[in-house]
Design goal:
14-stranded mixed β-sheet; 255 residues; 4 helices; alpha+beta
Length: 255
Amino acid sequence: MRWNKIIILLLLSAFCFTTAAQVKDSTNVQTTKVEIVKDPKASEIINKYVAAIGGKEKMFDVKDRTTILNSTIQGIKIKMVIYQKAPNKLKQKMSFGEMEQVTYFDGNKAFTTFNGATQEVTGQQLEALQREADMNFLPDFDNKNVGTKYLGLEDVDGQKAHKIEFTSMSGDKWFEFFNDSSYLKVKEIKELITPQGNFQQEVILSDYRDINGLKFPFTIQQKVAGQDLVFNITNIELNKNLSDSLFIMKEEEGK
């Protein structure tokens, strides 16, 4: 079940449609803060992406979002439910055979429960999760402490896409690709550093559909270490007035 566990641990950042981010084991990791520089060309591409998705106004009108995804690996069905609430609360619940993993982030602290064990998320992993939980990371990008560098056009499955390098203050780097004509995000690349080793994760986003005037990718393909997993979104619900208590791990859940 080794690969099953890796996939369960690493899927989080693939399905929050804000930004890619590194997932690291923060133990004994030293970070050096870097200078934040925003490339004007990269900002232009990001602004066109925000407009293509539906625009800042519609994005800021979303106060919460519930996303349901399904997949199958090695004959086992996977179901993931992601709850998000503005500005930065997140809960991810994944059922995988008889196992279940739940990640809670209430805007300050984060915990993950898996197979009866609970671990607090700290350090760079918490930093990455904070970015993932930010529902309006890209539409409010000018106010974020993240640098950018425009790297030109690259081919993504036969389509030209603008490649942008993102760098956090602690030095984490990831890459996002935006279609040259539609400006929708089509690909993300990030480094995954885990107890099982270091991996490069590639996420392909496609089948964009309209939900209340906003576009979301309904097919998400994850490639990591030779493993290819496709998630299909079955439902997205917006503004269901999710309670703040949903994002707080209850004591009995952490046992």
